[in-house]
From TrEMBL:
Annotated InterPro entries: L-lactate/malate_DH, Lactate/malate_DH_C, Lactate/malate_DH_N, Lactate_DH/Glyco_Ohase_4_C, Malate_DH_AS, Malate_DH_type2, NAD(P)-bd_dom_sf
Family annotation (PROSITE patterns): MDH
Residues that hold substrate according to the record: R96, R102, N135, R166
Organism: Arthrobacter alpinus
Similarity section: Belongs to the LDH/MDH superfamily. MDH type 2 family.
Annotated Lactate/malate dehydrogenase N-terminal domain residues: 10-148
Domain of life, per lineage: Bacteria
Name used for this protein in its record: Malate dehydrogenase
One of the GO biological process terms: malate metabolic process
MF terms in GO: L-malate dehydrogenase (NAD+) activity
Length: 331
């Protein structure tokens, strides 16, 4: 090893023993997220009941002999797990159990994300960046940011790249074009069934997507199919999306760190700056471009009446979630 090689990037992964964690860790260690020349140190955070399973995953990571993997450790203490973290993949969350109301779910996850926000505040690196995958992802990001007072809220984002990829794949299947021909598709709002997958600015091989599909398909098939795809996967697979969610988390962070390609954007849920009438502070999905490790909400897009109504409906749901966690004293 060259003595002057840059220090490895510390990536903290929560919920490391879960199904998304298992699909995520090996690809991060292989260089798929940060590039083929960037060494990584993996900090795996789990609850005590799952820490042994995470230790087992470490053994398998060791057995891969990844040249870029500079260290790895399992933690049960969030303060230790986030100490020096450059990047956090916040996957671990409490799933909805039998008889749990929405407020119970928000409360259980609010407890997790407030503690993790405090731990991030205590010791994360100056260039810290987080993507929240664990549901309800947008509101969990809001809670974590609120408890990390010294870290800019803009560093806490939530994942809607899976929705973005699902939408690209559906549009490709409908038009018969390869996925690589599709650009400028956007997801707005919440990572929930209220999200708005928007093809009004999308192109397929340079041609406006709206010239290739009819409005009936967009409203009655495309939007509900993408928005309810998580439930469709659960119904067909018998378990929630795992490898596709891990892939999207890698893409989210890869694009944030390495930049979006010229002429295209990605979708990320980020704290609103008031753009497009989305109240400031709400963690809502927008089309964003990225460069030099920063992101920018794409400005000045024309928003049709059809789009406006759908963005507003999803934002209303986010405001209701924010009010619910505020009532619980979590935000
Ligand atoms: N944003 C998105 O597009 C998607 C989000 N999800 C969400 O991702 C989350 C994880 O999904 P899976 O991996 O399938 O679930 P899973 O149940 O297989 O794994 C979750 C893991 O998190 C751990 N965990 C729970 N509390 C923790 C804490 N306080 N600290 C550290 N770890 C903790 C559990 O022990 C478990 O190992 C779920 O909330 C799921 O709804 C899933 C798919 C897509
Ligand atoms: O729907 C779920 O429970 C998991 C999820 O967030 C998705 O697949 O988009």
């Amino acid at each position: 090893m060259n003595a002057q090689a840059p220090a490895p990037v510390t990536v903290t992964v929560t919920g490391a023993a879960g199904q998304i964690g298992y699909a995520l860790l090996f690809r991060i260690a292989s260089g798929a997220m940060l590039g083929p020349d960037v060494r990584v140190k993996l900090n795996l955070l789990e609850i005590p009941q799952a820490a042994q399973a995470a230790e087992g995953t470490l053994l398998e990571l060791q057995d891969c002999a990844f040249p870029l993997l500079a260290g790895m450790e399992v933690f049960e203490d969030p303060v230790k797990a986030f100490d020096g973290a450059n990047i956090a993949m916040l996957v671990g969350a409490r799933p909805r159990g039998p008889g749990m109301e929405r407020a119970d779910l928000l409360k259980a996850n609010g407890g997790i994300f407030s503690v993790q926000g405090q731990a991030i505040n205590a010791g994360a690196a100056a260039d810290f960046k987080a993507v929240v995958v664990g549901n309800p992802a947008n509101t969990n990001a809001l809670i974590a940011a609120a408890h990390a007072r010294d870290v800019p809220a803009s560093r806490f984002t939530a994942m809607t790249r899976l929705d973005h990829d699902r939408a690209v794949a559906q549009l490709a299947a409908k038009t018969g074009a390869p996925v690589s021909a599709i650009s400028n598709l956007a997801i707005w709002g919440n990572h929930s069934a209220s999200q708005y997958p928007d093809i009004t600015h999308a192109t397929v091989s340079g041609q406006p997507a709206t010239e290739l599909v009819d409005q009936g398909w967009i409203a009655d098939e495309f939007i509900p199919r993408v928005a309810k795809r998580g439930a469709e996967i659960i119904a067909v697979r018998g378990g929630s999306s795992a490898a596709s969610a891990a892939n999207a988390a890698i893409e989210h962070m890869r694009l944030w760190v390495q930049g979006t390609p010229a002429g295209d954007w990605t979708s990320m849920a980020v704290p609103s700056d008031g753009s497009y009438g989305v109240p400031a502070g709400i963690v809502s999905s927008f089309p964003v471009t990225t460069s030099g490790g920063d992101y920018t909400i794409v400005p000045d897009l024309a928003i049709s009446e059809f789009s406006r109504a759908r963005i507003d409906a999803s934002v209303a749901e986010l405001l209701a979630e924010r009010d619910a966690v505020a009532e619980l004293g979590l935000f």
